[in-house]
């Protein structure tokens, strides 16, 4: 701001701070003449500070205002960071959580942590969130988790930690059972995509329904384990085919075909279960 503009601004403020609410018009007259027109209780122009003094006062008041400013956003950010930090620390010893693995157990004090529903089943086993998981040894990782989380291991601990252990152990069990089978893994990964698949939905395709009826009749009429095992192998081949179809549909984000594949996998999986009961 220039000194001339600053002096004009200050003059405008002084003109407005009179005891009267009416506006004052200032014609093009000299300073002495203008001063004579001002109300008696208004400061005269001769009493105004110099331009240099105005600038000094403005700069001083500006600095004071800046020093007294408060920034709520910074306070909120600090509180948010503090809350986030608390979530990433052990409830028992306060140790920071590792960033490379899910925080189910504290490495420092071995305390089992509260259940975090935001952690999905793939994260529990350190897997990428995708349908095809390859030859991952889920059973080995599952046993490693149970060695740390099983409720029997914390029977002498507090009620709080025993409750955490029961919840974490049950979740790991469910994660293992879900990811270890293609059908349940397919349903779960669609759930993560926001799609709930109803396995009980029937398929209206006559060709598929006739095929399922024939398969079930073959299972009922089977004379021995050899025939049943042969049908079992055929069902596994069909499951593999539709599992690959599902994987392709998921990669292409074609969720209609993905759901259709799951429904077929459900039929063949049930036939396998019926055969297993008879063997």
TrEMBL record:
Pfam families: HSCB_C
Record's keyword terms, sorted: Chaperone, Cytoplasm, Mitochondrion
Gene: LOC111481717
Coiled coil: none
Signal peptide: none
Biological processes per GO annotation: [2Fe-2S] cluster assembly; protein complex oligomerization
Similarity comment: family membership: Belongs to the HscB family.
Organism name: Cucurbita maxima
InterPro entries xrefs: DnaJ_domain (IPR001623), HscB (IPR004640), HscB_C_sf (IPR036386), HscB_oligo_C (IPR009073), J_dom_sf (IPR036869)
Lineage: Eukaryota, Viridiplantae, Streptophyta, Embryophyta, Tracheophyta
Protein name according to UniProt: Uncharacterized protein LOC111481717
GO-annotated molecular function: ATPase activator activity; protein-folding chaperone binding
